[in-house]
Amino acid sequence: MGLFEGFSSSSSSSSSSSSSPLQENRTKMEGMGNMSNSTTTTTTMSHKMGYTHMTFFWGKNSEILFPGWPATRTGMYVIALFFCFFLALLLEWISHCRYFKLSGVDSGGLSCKSPPSRRKLVVIGLVQTATYGLRVGIAYLLMLAVMSFNGGVLLVTVAGHAVGFFFFGSYAFKSAAEAASGKGVLAPDALPCC
Fold it and tell me: PANTHER family this protein is in (predicted)?
């Protein structure tokens, strides 16, 4: 005697004896299931039409960051590549810029002769926190763009980081005093040797 057989004997008086309550419930659910199956089918079909790849590929037919962008349009793909390059460049600029300089301590571009007031420190802290949040948000956007597994997106993102580091983080555009102090960049002797 199965688990549902006891249930079927008590409820079989109201239904025909040839079908069990389990079969009746299944039949009722099938009738209601048509509505949910159409939704599932539509959802499944829309995912099948996307350009989701799980390995790196080359080509303009992809989705980067947003559904349907850039899809199959060459012009939009080029714009998406410039967007990723610009975001990587912006991320490097934000990472290497210093906005506030307090009492000779290099924390940015605003120089103070006397110790700042508590209120000024709070404002500076809020600006630094907002900048940090922006930097992390851009970094996550770039990560998601690279996770589209499009080879072109990977190359322009790495190129944007490299160009940004060259302009904002390397010795190339630092003053002699900054280069001598080694602030913000790796010292040449700190690099691993082959």
Answer: COPPER TRANSPORTER 3 (PTHR12483:SF117), SOLUTE CARRIER FAMILY 31 COPPER TRANSPORTERS (PTHR12483)
Mean pLDDT of the chain: 74
Contact 121, 107 (CB under 8 A): no
Strands 69-71 and 62-66, bridge-based pairing: antiparallel
163-166 contacts at long range (C-beta below 8 A, 24 or more positions apart): 163/85, 163/89, 163/92, 164/88, 164/89, 164/90, 164/91, 164/92, 164/93, 164/96, 165/92, 165/96
Q: Which pLDDT belongs to residue 29?
A: 53
Strand partners, 110: 100
Per-residue pLDDT reduced to its tens digit, 66-124 = 888 888 889 999 999 999 999 999 999 999 887 665 554 445 555 556 777 889 889 98
Task: Read off the pTM.
Answer: 0.61
Q: Write the single-letter amino acid at 144.
A: L
CA distance 161 to 184: 15
